[in-house]
Amino acid sequence: MSLSAPAGTPSELETRLSSYLDGEASEEARHEVEALLVNDPQARALNDALKRGTEVGRRMFDDMLREPVPLDMVRTIKNTAPPRKAVRLPDPPRPAHQWTRRSPVYRPVAMAAHRRQHSAGPPPR
Fold first, then answer.
1. Based on the number of CB atoms within 10 Å of its own CB, is 120 exposed (0-12), middle (13-18) or buried (19 or more)?
2. What are the backbone angles phi and psi of residue 83, rounded to the nearest 5°?
3. For the chain, what are the domain ranges?
4. Cβ of 1: how many Cβ atoms within 10 Å?
5. Which long-range contacts (CB under 8 A, 24 or more apart) does 7-13 make?
6. Which phi and psi (to 5°) does residue 85 adopt?
7. pTM (2 decimals)?
8. pLDDT, tens digit, for every residue of 71-85?
9. How many CB atoms lie within 10 A of CB 33?
10. H/E element holding 73?
């Protein structure tokens, strides 16, 4: 019984090599792949095939970019209404601060008021 990936699904090695080739591998994963490429001829062959595939894909994409834009697409772009200008709505008014026992400034203010009241001595007669 083979533990290979289902058809059309990249193997773990292909995934690791792809992330390595794309520059997305972590430093540790990059070192592991580089060591694997030194020691495993099958991994080197797969890496070379992936590189060639990347190069072929890049060339095909570059060729596609050189093709002329279809006339129907040009007409559609030119005849489309420009997007509406975005309007920034005013910020809603901020509510006045509610002094509650949970407010971070409540305790120091209350303590200061309490000290003032009791440090002044008895009220004058």
1. exposed
2. -65, 150
3. 12-72
4. 2
5. 13/43, 13/46
6. -75, 135
7. 0.43
8. 999 999 999 988 888
9. 19
10. helix 71-79
